[in-house]
Design goal:
Strand order of the largest sheet: 1-4
Order of helices and strands: EHEEHEH
Number of helices: 3
Strand content: 15-25%
Helix content: 55-70%
Mean pLDDT: 85
Largest sheet: 2 strands, antiparallel
Low-confidence stretches: none
Number of domains: 1
């Protein structure tokens, strides 16, 4: 079996959920450390390639400002995760179609049927 394409929405959704779950930890880390600015991206973020708009926001000094920063950071990270996932799938689909796909193997475990007498015991 060869994988020649992926659907965009499921992959983008998984990355968006992952980015959204991890984004509060970035704000908490910034609150607990002495960094001057917190950088919140919006766009495509990938290794060796980045096409995004960065929001450099001053480190939260109070609990309330940390909550407001988190309310801004979570949607931005979710959008960044979705856009990055969609871009990754588009690149994968383009390359996979040009190269004929990626070889994949599937392991299938056949259900074993037991006699009715052993199920009663």
């Amino acid at each position: 079996m060869r994988i020649t394409s992926l659907r965009i929405r499921p992959v983008a959704r998984v990355l968006a959920i992952g980015y959204g779950v991890l984004s509060p930890f970035i704000v908490i880390f910034a609150f607990l450390t002495k960094v001057e600015y917190v950088r919140i991206p919006l766009g495509v973020v990938a290794p060796l390639f980045s096409l995004n708009l960065n929001f450099d926001i001053q480190r939260p000094t109070h609990f309330f400002s940390g909550v407001l920063l988190m309310l801004l950071a979570v949607p931005c990270y979710v959008a960044t995760g979705w856009i990055t996932g969609a871009a990754a799938v588009l690149v994968f689909n383009f390359v996979a179609r040009r190269t004929g796909g990626i070889q994949a193997s599937v392991l299938v475990k056949e259900p074993t049927t037991e006699p009715a007498s052993s199920q009663l015991a």
